[in-house]
Amino acid sequence: MSTDKKDKEILENDINLPTEENTKEENTTDKDSSGFENAEELSVEKQLEADLANEKDKHLRLFAEFENYKRRTTKERIELFKTANQEVLQAMLPVLDDFDRALTEISKSEDKALLLGVELIHEKLKSTLVSKGLEEVEVRKGDAFNADYAEAITQIPAPTENLKGKIVDVLEKGYKLGDKIIRFPKVVLGN
To answer: What is the DSSP annotation of 56-96?
Structure first.
């Protein structure tokens, strides 16, 4: 009997017939593998969520960068228009100065029609330049000198005590475009 029992056990082991012990081991491995699959599914889900969050972050950063680009190019375009306008206005300033000199000389003559015609052309030119943003820098005789708003050409002895260190004469008018001075007024200082 004992040999029969041993033979039977050997046959069962060789054939791998399911016995109670074998079935218990298989059930536990199924549970372990299914538990591992659940953990794997959770980690895949977490990985996908992390990837989604990463892509959303990239999208938001790209959108913000594009908005900054649009804002910057708009600002650059406005600056370009101002500088293009500035060059034309600077080129017209000597013409405006010539009109001022011509008005001074023509006012000495007795021809009122000529004076009126030149004044009309001068005002038309000046109003056109003002409409494009040109403004005169206000500097007068007797004002305190400020190097940020005027350029001192020379110094002369002050005619009176109260003109020492102040503007004695304005040789050339200054102009600004917006907040930027495009030509400083040229002045003479009292010493």
So the answer is: HHHHHHHHHHHHHHHHHHHHHHHHHHHHHHHHHHHHHHHHH
Backbone angles phi, psi at 6, to 5 degrees: -65, -45
pTM: 0.58
Cα(189)–Cα(139) distance, integer angstroms: 12
Q: Residue 104 has which token pair?
A: 């001074």
Q: Tell me the C-alpha distance between 100 and 126, whole Å.
A: 10
Determine the pLDDT at residue 29.
45
Under DSSP, the state recorded for 166 is B
Strand order in the sheet with 186-190: 151-156, 186-190, 167-172
Residue 188 vs residue 28, higher pLDDT: 188
> Would you report the helix, strand and coil content of the chain in percent, each value rounded to 5?
65, 15, 20
- The DSSP secondary-structure symbol of 174 reads E
Instruction: Work out the average pLDDT over 114-139.
Output: 93
* CA gap 31, 138 in Å, rounded: 92
How far apart are the C-alpha atoms of 182 and 176, rounded to whole Å?
Answer: 5
Cβ–Cβ under 8 Å, residues 182 and 88? no
Asked if 172 contacts 139 with a C-beta cutoff of 8 angstroms, the reply is: no
H or E stretch covering 139: none
Amino acid identity, position 69: Y
